[in-house]
Amino acid sequence: MDLRITCIPGDGIGPEIVAEAKKVLEKAGEKYGFTPVFTDILMGGASIDAYGVPLTEEAVRTAKAADAVLMGSIGGNTATSPWYRLPPEKRPEAGLLKIRKELNLFANLRPALLYRELAGACPLKEEISRAGFDIMIMRELTGGLYFGERRTVVENGVRKAVDTLTYDENEIRRIAVKGFDIAMKRKKKVTSVDKANVLDSSRLWRAVVEEVAEDYPEVTLEHMLVDNCAMQLVKDPAQFDVILTENMFGDILSDEASMITGSIGMLASASLNDTKFGLYEPSHGSAPDIAGQDIANPIATVLSAAMMLRFSFDLDKAADAVEAAVKKVLQEGYRTADIMTEGHKQVGCREMGSLIAERV
Ligand code: NAD
Question: pLDDT, tens digit, for every residue of 125-158?
Fold first, then answer.
């Protein structure tokens, strides 16, 4: 079976980490009977340098023709790069916003997983981190407060700003279905997070999530207010499996959840539409400060590729094997510079990729 994957190496460390994820996917293909067929496109600064725009229409067409997209990261040093002297719509990030919109990616998935081997990096007390945690945050990405009507006016000499938070039931239903589908591949628990004690949009959210839950009798559903969820994440993160929430709450909670893992180079992410199509990328940026030195941590990108196997291709066994290979390499004591601690073996980006590939 051929997997048609469009790759966006991007800028900074992007090309280095994507090369390692490709290596791991190729190895997984040999073992699990598929052939990844990669087509690279330019986006971000690399595309600005080549074509004068952060994403060409041709590149969008190539991405749409694939089964999934694997991305490194885009952007440069925002203080010094000439890309940031361009108008906002010509800057590297405009390419990312455009591709998300063109591909209709409304569901954002960000796992926050604490590896036992890296527990020392977790900023929580040992008695909390000891239990470990493995949380999947499912955030609605194209509705809510960030996409509602907004204006700033002056009324009777007083400046006033208005933002609106709108969701219709269809937008809620499609993200809830994704959340429950993903819970079925995990520990079968969904915590739906809202502010239903105050907001109408949250009361509709809660009602629709309950309707969707009826189709998933095996999944346990609980509701939690967003302020409580923010506290519970640092008090008892082990209680969560899938956290399902709207755009702004998800923005804030997913950053909090990544923070408690303590290691940015390890965090994968996926953005999905209503088919199996998805865009998979590490949660971190393009790290221009360490680009080209073979010291970047490729694990977040490798784990994003594992998410691609699981969610776009239903190749759960291959995804499990990639995730297990990452764990094995950590257990054997290999570390890139960002997660290096005393008594371990420091390796570069390429070697880390090869070590993982060998263990798939
Ligand atoms: P960053 O995530 O690139 O870097 C923050 C710090 O973490 C840096 O010290 C960096 O060296 C380190 N780091 C990040 N990833 C690492 C890895 N895999 N291995 C080892 N160390 C790693 O964030 P930033 O410096 O704020 O942003 C740099 C550029 O990335 C900016 O242009 C920003 O706009 C862009 N960015 C892009 C995306 C994306 O493409 N989705 C996301 C975030 C930031």
Answer: 999 988 889 999 999 999 999 888 999 999 999 9
Residues 55/95, Cβ–Cβ less than 8 Å: yes
Q: How do residues 159-203 score in pLDDT, each as one tens digit?
A: 999 999 999 999 999 999 999 999 999 999 999 999 999 999 999
Q: Is 51 a catalytic residue?
A: no
| Full-model pTM | 0.92
Catalytic site includes residue 251: yes
Rounded Cα gap, residues 95 and 116, in angstroms? 37
Distance between start and end Cα atoms, the chain:
19
- Kindly report the backbone phi and psi dihedral angles of residue 155, in degrees, each rounded to the nearest multiple of 5, phi listed first: -120, 120
Q: Which two tokens stand for residue 293?
A: 């030195």
Q: Where in the chain is the domain with CATH 3.40.718.10?
A: 1-111+267-360, 123-260
Q: Which CATH number fits domain 123-260: 3.40.718.10, 3.40.50.300, 3.20.20.390, 3.40.50.150?
A: 3.40.718.10
Q: Which two tokens stand for residue 46?
A: 């690399």
Cβ count within 10 A of residue 290: 17
CATH architecture of the domain with residue range 1-111+267-360:
3-Layer(aba) Sandwich (3.40)
**Active-site option among 187, 195, 327, 328:** 195
Ligand 1 test: best mutation among 78, 284, 289, 299, most atoms within 8 Å of CB? 284
What residue ranges line ligand 1, CB within 6 angstroms? Answer: 13, 73-76, 78, 93, 96, 264-265, 281, 284-290, 296-297, 300, 338
Active site residue 289: no
Closest atom of ligand 1 relative to the 349 alpha carbon: 19
pLDDT tens, position by position, 4-37: 999 999 999 999 999 999 999 999 999 999 999 9
